[in-house]
Write a structure and sequence with these properties.
Elements: E1 4-5, H1 8-11, E2 38-41, E3 47-52, E4 58-65, H2 79-86, H3 98-102, E5 109-114, E6 119-126, H4 130-142, H5 148-167, H6 172-183, H7 197-202, H8 205-215, E7 221-227, H9 231-242, E8 266-272, E9 279-286, H10 294-305, H11 311-319, E10 323-332, E11 337-345, H12 351-367, H13 372-389, H14 393-407, H15 412-422, H16 425-435, E12 442-448, E13 503-506, E14 512-517, E15 524-530, H17 544-552, H18 561-570, E16 574-579, E17 584-590, H19 595-607, H20 613-630, H21 634-646, H22 660-665, H23 668-678, E18 684-690, H24 694-705, E19 729-733, E20 740-747, H25 756-767, H26 773-780, E21 788-794, E22 799-807, H27 812-826, H28 833-851, H29 854-866, H30 873-882, H31 886-896, E23 903-908, H32 914-920, E24 925-928
Parallel strand pairs: 1-5, 3-7, 8-12, 14-18, 19-23, 19-24
Antiparallel strand pairs: 2-3, 4-6, 4-7, 5-6, 9-11, 9-12, 10-11, 13-14, 15-17, 15-18, 16-17, 20-22, 20-23, 21-22
Helix pairs in contact: 2-5, 4-9, 10-13, 10-16, 11-12, 12-16, 17-23, 25-28, 25-31, 26-27, 27-32, 28-30
Length: 944
Amino acid sequence: MIRHVFRAAVAAAVLSLAAAPAVFAQASAAQVPPIVYKERVLPNGLKVFTSLDRTTPNVTVQVWYGVGSKDDPNGRSGFAHLFEHLMFKATRDMPAENMDRLTEDAGGFNNAFTADDTTAYYEVIPANHLQRLLWAESERMGALVVDKDNFTSERSVVEEELRQRVLADPYGRFFRFAIPQASYAVHPYKRPGIGSIAELEASTLDDVLAFHQTYYRPDNAALFVVGNFDEAELNRWVDRYFGALKRPAKPIPRVKAVEPQRTGPKTVTAFGPNVPLPAVATTWLVPGAPSKDTAALTVLDAILSGGKSSRLYNALVYDQQIAQNAFSSADLNNQAGLFMVGAVMAGGKTVEQGEASLHAEVAKLRDAPPTEAELAKAKTGLIASAVRERETIDGRAQALGQALVIEGDAARANTDIAALEAVTAADIQRVARTYLRDDRAVTVRYLDEGQKKAGQPDLAQPVVTKAASLKYTGPVVAPADPAHRQAPPGLGRPVEPVLPNPAERTLANGLRVIVAHSSDLPLVTAELTVRSGAAADPQGLAGTASMAADLLTEGTTTRSATDIARETEALGANLSAGSGWESSTVSLNVMPQNLEPAMAIMADVARNPVFKPEELERIRTQSLDALSVAYQRPGSVAGFAAAPLIYAGSPFGHVASGTPASLKRVGRDALVDMHDAYWRPDNAILVITGDLTPEEGFALAEKNFGDWARPAAPLPPAPVADMNPKPHAVVIDMPQSGQAGVVVAKTAIVRGDPRYYAGLVANTVLGGGYSARLNEEIRIKRGLSYGANSSLTARQSTGAFTASTQTKPPSAPQVVTLVREEMAKLGQTAPSADELAARKSSLVGSYGRDIATTDGLAGVLGDLALYGIDLSEVKAYTAKVEAVSPAQVKDFAAQVLDPANAAVVVAGDASLFAPEMAKVLPNAETIPLDQLDLDSPTLRKATP
């Protein structure tokens, strides 16, 4: 579990890979099931929203507070975000981290986010735990313990988060600091929500206590409960636990700043370290989310960057090929909005080129309305996204919370969809002309600091304001003596989940088809998996399988890349392809009325790719540009080096996605050969889940894949990995990196190993969640990282265990020691019964939530089929997890997770940790980043 900061403008920089046909049923608001809810207001001002769903065994509890980063005190940026963290510490009757005991340890999860206007806390738990979660949330609201120890430890974690999200990311400063500071003149939206280390360090306990007293109160909060509950019982509990909380007499201070209209254009340049590709963004002020123009601005955003048929992608990424990615964002906050277009440029391209193309695309929408086809595609995509949001109970609660807090009315969660449908082409042109004017544009150019000239201001740093600390004299909550703590309420009767009943059939050509009706929500997922991936990459051509998967959606014998994107997105479908080590997949998610035409496209891209040379070169260039960015992220670099170390000399001993050198060598012939060899019906599995019957699924499979010819040639033999490589330690020196990435990795078990479930539980104890041992030792106890975790990946012919984290560079030696110590401890002493029960609940709960969605269930069934496991395992999973004993966990850790046999990779600024690291890893080899060659057995470039 990760506590995180959210800013829509940053999220918008990630382009969706949606794609679907010319004949389709356009999605409409009538096809989106409304969120049926009830609301009431307690005498103390707390707003309560409830929505009943008897089909789930779970319930979500969410509390949204009317305080966000815009409310941070002057000189104390990041306070709302800091409180997002502090609310997970102690209360009068709960010890620190007890929210994790009540959620993750019970099979649920919890999280939170901070936005400009709100801070929201949410949990999903089994329905019989509802009463105790309401009690816990009331404790956090009315009896939070804010003391020096909690304040100091969480401030350290927040600073590590800032280093990871901002300082260690080549574009962190661009999105978090430069753009908002250049875009707003007076409104506090200009300040970084994540804060600044200088202002966080200047804060005091009195400052924090005053902030909590001011904003964390019932009349500044809304409670949302969605899922399976008894309504009368729920109302009694809400009155009991929240009704007694007092409404303070002092009014809540509100931000009254009004951002002035811009009077002219402005261009600024910001600089950051290790920026491999220049970037540019242009922003305009627009009304806030309550505005009548919200729907039109949202559709405008979708037209500009909603998928691979969008205007910005087509112009900058596909046609002109001047950008690595292009994005837009309608960041519609409560008080003022910001509309943005931007791009991270391709290698060798300039910000001036990007700026000109971005402005040209905006000008086209001012000069002429979009076509009806564009408008319909954008609306269909947005409506389909709304359906996907409603697939989970927490998604429905978040839709209500967003509508209430940001837009001012929870009902807009439902009415916004009709508003989107009502948007006209003329509305799009009108808002573009009204708000996106050249004379009101602010453009931010972002370059590597090596291009900075003497005297230029550093706009990619937060503006630090010095402010005196407050003197707090109000009430202070102290933790109750453990002997006198109020105990959490008891549990109710468990609600049994409804498990899927998959049906299967094998077509005459050998294609295995699995269908499961999993939901009455109008969604279907289809997933075609072939048994081949990166392990089949030819020698010296790392990334071939990955490149082949990327190119599946870039052109077939009858459709161009633009045809595929345009047709798929017109259906509101998500179509994507990708590869792993032993499999490659084409995935489709679509509303049922458009399933048939979408499946036709899915079959076409899987069966008939042409790998056009021009498309290959375009994707190659994009991949190389993406790698140039990834090579500046210490966590990514450490992760890349793991497979070459632990699988050295085997088909798994390379970077699955390829390297800068190998991708340049991958030619069309290698892609064609790989597709011809492995993409065949007798080597494939088709899983279809969602709102359809098995017979409907089998009929669709026969129609689209029944005539797929089985080749006469036999399949190539499956690759085999070396399971006993020698341990090795490498330090990759990355000067000026904001953090150090730490990875400890080793080979592990295959999926068919009888110790599989013991391994799952052992990994969950060690690093599978917020409450697991690695995160406990590294983040919670010491504040050395934003998060530490581990994973166990069991495949057909090999497996891998990986523990990873990021930390400030001087702490890297200590973190390496802690990871290895925890791995060793688990193999020496069996976990307690209580710890094991908690971690099993976490594992089982996560699995239950996975199979509750169409995508998740398709993935689970596909994996079972891929690894030759009987489909009945989908129902046996929980019992097999529960059957694992403490001794089995200890034995597995001793046999498989021994750190003495593990490789260690540390990537970061070695000048900040070298002497101490030499003590921890005396035999480690240090390789400068500019000498790193992940294709070489030595990981080092050959000496000329």
